[in-house]
Amino acid sequence: MTETSSGAPTRFADGARSPHLARRRRKQKLLQAFGVAGLGVATLMLSILIGSLVVSGYKAFTQTHVTLDVFIDPQEVTAERLPRGGFDDVLARSLAEQLADLDASDRATLRQATSILSNGAQFQLRDAVVADPALIGTSVTITVPASDPFDQLNKGLVDRDTPEGQRRVSDVQIAWFDQLAAQGAVSKPFNWALFFNADSRFPEQAGLWGAIVGSFWALLTCFVISFPLGIGAAIYLEEFAPKSRLSDFIEVNINNLAAVPSVVFGLLALAVFIGWFGMPRSAPVVGGLTLALMTMPTIIIATRAALKAVPPSIREAALGVGASRQQVVFDHVLPLAMPGILTGTIIGLAQALGETAPLLLIGMNAFITSAASTPFDSATALPTQIFIWADSPERGFVSRTSAAILVLLGFLVLMNGLAIFLRSRLERRW
Amino acid sequence: MTYVKLAVSMLAIASASTAMAQSRDQIRIVGSSTVFPYTQAVAEQFSNTTGAPSPIVESTGTGGGMQIFCQGIGEQHPDVTGASRAMKPSEYKLCQDNGVESISEAMIGYDGLSLAVSRESAFEWDLTLAEVYLALAAQVPVDGEWADNPYTMWNEINADLPAVEILAYGPPPTSGTRDAFVELAMHAGCEELDYVKNGDFDGDWIGENCSRMRTDGPFVEAGENDNLIVQRLQADANAVGIFGYSFLYENMDTLKAVDIAGVSPSEETIGDFSYPVSRPLFFYVKNAHRGVIPNLDEFIAEYMSDDALEPGGYLSERGLVSLSADRLTALQDAVLDGAPMSAPE
């Protein structure tokens, strides 16, 4: 034991009597409290965001359907004229028969009644008949989507107590709809159309398929371009480049590039890809090229970090048994760094998936009712589809916008989950 | 390895994209976000009934659409542009300079800009354009002087109006709706003021001094998204919203119109201009693309059909106010014949 010069020894063990220790512990507690508070606020924000999306969006995951017995009248529909034919009249007449007290001879009344059905119903019937012309002259039972105002009514989003003039559905239409419901003709199954239909002007038919396909093509292009380019650049900078002013300059620029606002890349793409190269507007391939510009710095930075994490002993051992530097990189260092590279790439691609601004500038916010079959066809992407729906006047799009955001979040969670899985499965600890 | 793959993929993409740029079987449409929903409806109907590939409709805004439209003739340029105002002389000149010589103009109908409040609001709103101007403009006459807007309550402007704070949500300056609102409501309201009437000012003075919305709080730019404005109105009973008539029409259960000088917006009042804040909608077609781009003629025919444009047609179900019957017939004949427009004044 050593004597202190001031005389009485400071008793660190006794917290109650040591102001120093008490202060230190208080600071520690405070720091922890801040941490917990920060975490709490972040969790709260996230749950408010997800909660409000779920509350407004969950109703879009079901869609009201009406089941009808349709007699395909050979006077209206003939095999010779297909795919043309009076399918709307056929539907209207079948609906009129199913409803009591409806005067089918009055066209205006009939029109009011058929507005219960989606505009797409006649095309659904047409497609069924075109697929099997033997149906003409027989009765078929088909289930078709209800139009948006009645979907809203069925989901309780239209208040029946509001005066008639203030809602989209009239009292008599509600009475008809209730009649159908009493017959058991109204159902509310899962809204597969939300995932497997392309965009439509009619909320009940609008879906995300076109956007999902568009995002897929754009991400594929982005991956094909940015993955090899990014890895190549990172390998050169990390393994081969001489340490010089120039390489420092390049490094700083790459780091800066990662922080450039995405709208700048959009303007660049508009001028270069569409303006100079004459590539088509709204094409996922142009979107993919633009996103590749943004993703590349992320991949380069992740790859360099992964390469750095491979211990030098591996390189030295390989060099020691006579491998060339190229062999060292491709046979030893790169395979070991791959988990880190893949993680970085997936995170970069997930960022690209959520990117909107550059896609707006190159026209990927167009209205397209069919999914792109190649990356050169026009398409939307998930975030731009959300942008279009958020701006649509129809009521049904309010809940569909939230649902689309949830789908996009789902894809992001999947991708980030994959990144975490790869990291925990494949990463080697030294 | 990596470099070989890279080179191959780059080559493949480059060659395929040039190949694709040379053949187009879809109609391309750009232009106003106000005309966008109507064009969407026609495009979808057209592709459903004919089985042709669906036209690609892009909402770029009126001015942006004109810029892209007037870049030239050829497959890489769009065939049709929508506009929420007539083509300007400068835009016509740009088109001519780039070889887009024969253009058909089609005025498809009218769109009302509505002012609306929540149904919760106890007061029956009826404003004159001068009152709208006094409430929302940056500068107004105060005691015979042209000064910054001092009004914060509606009843300061007119004692008959309710004693609530002025709060209006409207579109930002980038929006065509904002341009139309300034021109149709603010300029007209400004001209109704005694100060301006007696002051012997010309149109330039009005354009210069009556175009600015106030920025001290009562007028809130709510972004391009009209649905957001609708939601804000539902939350605040006394706030006034400014947006296209189709949004009011879709939300009649929660919103009610603010009458302008006793006239409330409806199909009739917008169509005959007795509701003053209404504007015509147009689209423009390149005649040189007709018969070259597949299905363009058929698409124009669908847009010009009675099913689409008549009162009660599927566009009027979306909020478009139809032309009168004789004007509609004249329009259909002119556009289907491909009559070129003359240079705008």
UniProtKB/TrEMBL annotation, chain A:
Recorded GO molecular functions are: phosphate transmembrane transporter activity
The UniProt annotation puts the region (Disordered) at 1-21
Q: Which UniProt keywords apply?
A: Cell membrane, Membrane, Transmembrane, Transmembrane helix, Transport
Give the residue spans that cross the bilayer: 30-55, 208-237, 257-279, 285-307, 328-350, 403-422
Q: Please tell me one Gene Ontology term that the record gives under cellular component.
A: plasma membrane
Q: Which CDD domains match?
A: TM_PBP2
Q: Where in the cell is it found?
A: Cell inner membrane; Cell membrane
The record, for InterPro entries, names: DUF3333, MetI-like, MetI-like_sf, Phosphate_PstA
- State the membrane topology: Multi-pass membrane protein
Keyword set includes Zinc: no
Keyword Transmembrane belongs to the record: yes
Q: What is its main location?
A: membrane
Q: Which SUPFAM superfamilies match?
A: MetI-like
Its protein name is: Phosphate transport system permease protein PstA
Name the species this protein comes from: Albimonas donghaensis
What taxonomic ancestry is recorded?
Bacteria, Pseudomonadati, Pseudomonadota, Alphaproteobacteria, Rhodobacterales
Automatic annotation (TrEMBL), chain B:
Signal peptide span: 1-21
Keyword annotations: Signal
Q: Outline the extent of the PBP domain.
A: 17-306
Keyword Protein transport annotated:
no
Q: Carries keyword Signal? A: yes
Q: Which domain of life is it from?
A: Bacteria
Family matches, as InterPro entries: PBP_domain (IPR024370), Phosphate_ABC_transporter (IPR050811)
Q: Which residues cross the membrane?
A: none
User: What is the name of the protein in this document?
Assistant: Phosphate ABC transporter substrate-binding protein, PhoT family
